[in-house]
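Hey,

Quick one before I head out. I ran the complex with hexanoyl-coenzyme A overnight. Inputs first:
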Amino acid sequence: AEYETILVETRGRVGWITLNRPEALNALNTQTMRDVVAAASAFDLDPEIGAIVLTGSERAFAAGADIKEMESKNGLEMLMGDHFGGWAQFAAVRTPVIAAVSGYALGGGCELAMMCDVILAADNAKFGQPEINLGVIPGMGGSQRLIRAVGYYKAAELILTGRMMDAAEAERSGLVSRVVPAADLLDEAGKTAEAIASKSLPALYAAKATLDAAMEVPLAEGLRLERHVFASLFDTADQKEGMAAFREKRSPDFQGR
Ligand code: HXC
């Protein structure tokens, strides 16, 4: 497939998506959304892919939704147009996605990182929801996912002031999985993705589905889901292989079924 705003590459069992609009610090316009959704969906349907890395440039993961594209729209156009809906498809990808964040992850950029399952941050990363400075509010999940990630008071302060936080504060707050030196970001993201991609694909899907549910449903419902999804994995060849490998003191050879 041909993409206008991203670079796409497969390395082993890992699919790489690199946001590539350097002239706009990877601001997310409609085309970027379509490209990312199409690339991620294609990886998601490929049984040879066990993890996806989403990254940007050294200077910016993404500096937000494209302000120049949005500026002249009215409310109805924002609601009815195909500007943001596609991102829900990205968030619904079954394959684990790792955001590798260097530089700015602001507004929609921060929200896009929060649609991923793991957030690795370079030590130069800056996170924020600066929409309030533009006279609007987060619109791609920030008001909901940021609270779940960092708690009410940290999220409220960030959203109401629009200030940025650095990688260390983001890690302390629970927004990022891990901070690494900027020079090592892509290596570390690759290693993490390969580690994930070496596991059983049905188990990865199951883990992601239950993690996602934990963000949304009451505890009793989440526990019920977990019990059933956990049990269903005992009908996979990979569960038999994983447990036999443990007993035989060797590494498992997962088949993805
Ligand atoms: C469009 C953007 C952009 C954006 C940067 N650019 N961010 N274009 N949309 N979100 C463009 C600039 O206009 C400029 O192009 C080029 O990228 C480089 O940016 P500079 O501002 O010159 O760089 P710098 O001085 O280093 O400042 C970096 C920055 C600043 C602090 C990240 O660019 C900035 O504040 N950007 C906007 C951040 C923001 O408000 N994001 C939230 C967007 S709203 P030109 O050609 O002009 O030189 C949002 C809503 C999400 O995300 C929900 C939607 C429903």
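The longest helix spans residues 30-44.

Talk tomorrow,
K.
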